[in-house]
Predict the structure of Cell migration-inducing and hyaluronan-binding protein.
Amino acid sequence: MRQAHLRCALPLLTALLLSGCTDGSAPPSAPTPPTAPGTPAPSTPSTQTVNWSDPATWGGTLPAAGADVTLPAGKRVVLDVSPPALGGLTIPAGSALEFGRQDLTLSAEWLMVHGELRIGTEARPFTQHARITLTDARPGEDVMGMGDRVIAVMDGTLELHGAPRLPWTRLAQTAPAGSSTLTLEAAPDWVGGDTLTLATTDFNAAQTEQVVVQRVSGNTVTLATPLKYTHWAQDTTHAGLTLSERAEVGLLTRNIVIAASEDASATGLGANTMVMGRSEARVQGVEFTRVGQRGVLRRYPMHFHQLGSQPNSYFKGNSVHASFNRCVTVHGTRDLRVQDNVTYNTLGHCIFLEDGDETGTTITGNLVTLVRRPDSKKGETALLPSDTRAAAYWITNPANTVSGNIAAGVQGVGFWYALPEHPTGLGAAHGADIWPRRTPLGTFDRNVAHGTDRGLDVDNGPRPDGTTQATWYAPVTTPADPKSAPVPAHFTRLTAYKNRDHGAWLRGQDLTLSGSVLADNGVGVTLAAHRSGLDGSLLLGETANLGQPDSWEAKGEGGRSLPRPWDASFPIRGFQFYDGLVTVRGTALGAFTPNAIRPASGLGYLTANAFALNPQNAAAGLTWLDGSARVYLPAPNPDKDGDKAATFRDADGTVTGTAGLTVTGSALLRGAPDCTFNAAWNAGVCAGEYARLWLEDVQGGKIGPVLTTNARGDAVSLTGTPDAFKSFSTTVRLGEAYAATPTGASTHLRLGFTDRRPGDTLTLTLPAATEPALYRDWWVDERNRLKKVALGSLGATTGDSYAWENGQLTLKLVVKAGATSATVDVCTTALCK
């Protein structure tokens, strides 16, 4: 019997290739005709109920140990005994296997469900104990292309409904290391012998603990063994927003268990549940342990595979722990519910939306703890390159609901919006008209990330080959038309604390993070974005939560754990400006206190930055809760032009005390007579208007470094951006004259200044041994050639013009009506002709 479900026969392989099922999964088994994904599974027409223990059910002889068993056609078989360990078990279409209401164990190499497998119902959950153990006495099987050690649901129905339990709550009081008592916010229905996950409240994901309940009294849980680490529980409220640093406590025990046998702990070949074809699956109250198959594509604890729309299916109230490969995979499936699940100690991306065509999924109320990146010392390899930065939630299409979830203790990213240009994998076959990077955001609200490297990452989307690239998320009304009206994306009410790198990082356009609380992070938030901002939020540098650093770690004042113990002097910051245009508005900041170990500030700039910046980046409506350092700009790296140009506006005086002043770290700017140098900030506070000056060697030759000076003799040497080092930019002040001196010669330069208003002007001098030809606004055409004047007359001109005298080219650049920049091409006459 088992051979019927081992590797696909040649006719099925042909159908597989024609169906585009290129990931190795088989099409629906013959003779069922192909149907559209998402077509409801046929109802089970079983009319006669029989018992497993009745020999008549099996024609007179009960199934023996090791046998491959097929349920009788058209029968609902009630499992009323725990049978001997079987080979394979097939439930054909029109048949059903239902667990009786008693404690039961079912062991088999695999289960193939074409009909129905049921334990309990949604209306009447199963309250006894049931266990399905998948064994591996016959290694290397591949059941209909769905793998080994598998519960394979093909054109069938999976109904698993365990007893309702409180899935997770939080500590009401801090639980110190050495304690054996947890005081919880809610009185749980947990009992002695239950296993819990207790989340880290420090930077270190490994401080997540698995503990066993000894007894429960009200909201007090006594543990079988003392805690190794302190788990914090404190709320802090400022400016109407509350930071809740309370360890989550999740229940791992359920009364229905799906697991591989013990040998999987050594081999990494865990149990695998795969639902595909015309199937539905409703799974709740189930414990999945020793699941997922290490390093094997498509072999996950729970895998909804190419099902299309699934509004009637769900995965809720379950636990997944000791997983060798992910937690829940949603692949080519829409409109699913993934709700109120608890995970612990899993490998690679945990809740995983695979290709980028998965939309309408509701991911709510889940607690994901201790997500591990692969460890080569343990023989673990990354399934995808991105698994080396494992994510608790890997979201490949923004058109989903992600709310009220926890990512706690992740050796990578909490919530990763990893958006491909088009769906990858199997989704590529029909995904040319799907544009995740331009699709409006569904919902991202009330999520919490702590103990990760980066709490929220909206960047670094996958390429078709599985590697990632910097990703510009710019949602618009019509995703196929990038010029259609923008649809601002609002990421709301994020709580992110104790994250080593960032609380949040967003790259794109028209993005807002609002109503959020970011504390105890290396950096609160960076927006590598345009027309984007942080609104109405709370930024805290360091709270009373000192953490519990390991003995080898460098420590902060008072023995505090540091976000980067390998770089103890790293300056912590709340809001970090980057390229822009970005703003921080209506936000309260506090507890950014410099000390002898490291600087700190509420505001700063991305460091080690080689790229261009927008000097119109701004702060407004800020509230300072204490004597926090407001700004700190570290000394620039000598080869990073962005560091040398760091500048932002104080729009309303809530940073500097005077509206409209500019804070700058640029050595080219801060020496002006109306600037005041603030040594604590390592920045000048200046009047005036500012723009971005840029020049590019169009021919791609090497002209850098480019020395840029002003009339006072202040200078910066520009190295150029790393993309071939042919583009150079810095911040300049309007009303001043500048000189740019490239090290090498160019036959065609393009230059200008940006981020300004009509009528704004800038004067720039360049070396020019011979008289060049100059053209405005990217048009190399005689009708658009600049006017030449005498050097003494240049200041009186009202439009773009130039003077060339004594080997020097002097340009006057003017922003035209309706424009925000001025651009000029400078090249030899021969080239321009």
